[in-house]
Specification:
Blueprint: H1 10-32, H2 37-60, E1 63-65, E2 79-86, E3 92-99, E4 110-114, H3 123-130, E5 133-135, E6 147-149, E7 159-163, E8 173-174, E9 181-182, H4 183-200, E10 209-214, H5 221-231, E11 242-248, H6 254-259, H7 261-267, H8 273-283, H9 295-308, H10 336-345, H11 348-353, E12 374-375, H12 382-390, E13 394-400, H13 408-416, E14 422-431, E15 434-442, E16 446-451, H14 462-473
Helix pairs in contact: 1-2, 4-5, 5-12, 8-9
Organism: Camelina sativa (False flax)
Protein name: Serine carboxypeptidase-like 9 isoform X1
Family: Belongs to the peptidase S10 family.
């Protein structure tokens, strides 16, 4: 397939096309002098129209990637990368990876994947959670880190758009100095991205669409689903075939989730019965927004922190290690692959293969949240879940049951607060006759599931999470 990188702006693309048109017209002029004026004009216009249509298609589309540094041989799946300009001036350029379904891309669901943070690159999802490639676990030796195929990719049954957002995360960039953004602004931008992406890929406009993410995207996905749903009723925009959404260990209402860390810690035997009893008595369920006059509660919370500060908050069973500085992370650390992915993405041959615009960003950082001006202006996404339930969208909410950051009890609590009846009560779900977690389904088409032994993201048990997802997305009971 012919692959020409997409031009940096629509305005520049148009300018380039006009320049091509003028050049063709000049070169053609001597040959058409002998033709009558009417015929000359007709033939020239037809020819230019064909050229413009041909060039506009390839200038505006993404670029096909058949080989990636670190992976031996051609890629065993179809990968496209590209940019979509956002807002009127298109100064914001969202970078995406699009991988077609290995089954039936023409009819299989289309999902858009958003990582959390905010500010984490979607390569975290692609390489660590649900993509067809992963980094080989080996000590970095200065060459391009090796990539291997996975057995748990969600692309076995779905088309996936992995999106770097907000601008400043991954390879997304801004042509002007980055301005402060927010949850609500990102919802608008991602919605715009989807509309433009589907206009450039009309062959996927009828595929069922699901919005998917984890962690902080729990604040983005529900209002995005609402925005897409409302947008489908606005004049002149082609409707998006939205069917539902999926969230893993989502932030939903941070006060609820913080307060459930105490009962979670007690249930995991991280604090004593006596401390838990005293905390309940003197803090009365409010452990992290304590009245300064309640000195007894403050002292007890401090005791809780002494017991849990050295626990890996994303997975209580995995050793805690310092992953804040990936340049000096130990190969023995569970999160050493975070260093490898940064080495891979900062390699010039990788950027060239991915068709990243040269000079668009400096150092690629897996989690660049601290460098992105951002306002957390959605404090509670529960009302959006309620609205999406009323509109009939199906959803899967899952929790790794060893995540103390977003405890599964907190997720259960806000789901129950929606006040929908249970249609399939609490039961284990199985893989190879072994319990892989527990699940419950409600009358609003919402399924809750735990992943036994899982953590804050799917990266801890990608195989089990993939099986759960494949069953749900194809309409099977877990």
């Amino acid at each position: 397939m012919l692959s020409i990188p997409r031009g940096p702006t629509q305005r520049q693309s148009t300018s380039q096309l006009l320049h091509v048109s003028e050049t063709i017209a000049i070169l053609s002029f001597p040959k058409v002098l002998v033709i009558r004026n009417e015929k000359r004009m007709s033939l020239t216009l037809r020819f230019l129209l064909l050229v413009l249509l041909f060039l506009s298609h390839y200038v505006d589309s993404g670029s096909i990637v058949k080989f990636l540094p670190g992976f031996e041989g051609p890629l065993p799946f179809e990968l496209e990368t590209g940019y979509i300009g956002i807002d009127k001036e298109e100064n914001v350029q969202f970078f995406y990876y699009f991988i077609k379904s290995e089954k039936n891309p023409k009819e299989d669901p289309l999902i858009i994947w958003l990582n959390g943070g905010p500010g984490c690159s979607c390569l975290s999802g692609l390489f660590f959670e649900n993509g067809p490639l992963a980094l080989k676990s080996e000590v970095y030796n200065g060459s391009v880190p090796s990539l291997v195929s996975t057995t748990y990719s969600w692309t076995k049954t779905t088309n996936i758009i992995f999106l770097d957002q907000p601008v400043g995360s991954g390879f997304s960039y801004s042509r002007t100095p980055i301005e402060k953004t927010s949850d609500t602004n990102e919802v608008k931008r991602i919605h715009e991205f989807l509309q433009k992406w589907l206009r450039k890929h009309p062959q996927f406009s009828s595929n069922p669409l699901y919005v998917v993410g984890d962690s902080y995207s729990g604040m983005i996905v529900p209002p995005l689903v609402q925005a897409i749903s409302k947008g489908n009723y606005i004049c002149c925009n082609p409707p998006i075939n939205l069917q539902g959404y999926v969230l893993g260990n989502p932030i939903t209402h941070i006060e609820i989730e913080q307060n459930y860390r105490i009962p979670f810690a007690h249930g995991m035997s991280l604090i004593s019965d006596e401390l838990y009893t005293s905390l309940k008595k003197f803090c009365k369920g409010n452990y992290f927004n304590v009245d300064p006059r309640n000195t007894k509660c403050l002292k007890l919370v401090e005791e809780y922190r002494k017991c849990t500060d050295k626990i890996n908050s994303h997975h209580t069973l995995i050793p805690d290690c310092d992953d804040t500085n990936t340049q000096h992370i130990s190969p023995d650390c569970y999160y050493y692959p975070y260093h490898l992915v940064e080495c891979w993405a900062n390699n010039e041959s990788v950027r060239k293969a991915l068709h990243v615009k040269k000079g668009s960003i400096g150092e690629w950082i897996r989690d660049n949240g601290r460098n992105i001006p951002y306002s957390l202006d959605i404090k509670n996404s529960i009302p959006y879940h309620m609205d999406n339930s009323i509109n009939g969208y199906r959803s899967l909410i899952f929790s790794g049951d060893h995540d103390i950051t977003m405890p599964f009890q907190a997720t259960q609590a806000w789901i129950k607060s929606l006040n929908y009846s249970i249609v399939d009560d609490w039961r284990p779900w199985m893989i190879n006759h072994q319990i892989a977690g527990y699940t419950r389904t409600y009358s609003n088409k919402m399924t809750f599931a735990t992943v036994k032994g899982g953590g804050h993201t799917a990266e801890y048990l990608p195989k089990e999470t993939s099986i759960m997802f494949q069953r749900w997305i194809t309409g099977q009971p877990l």
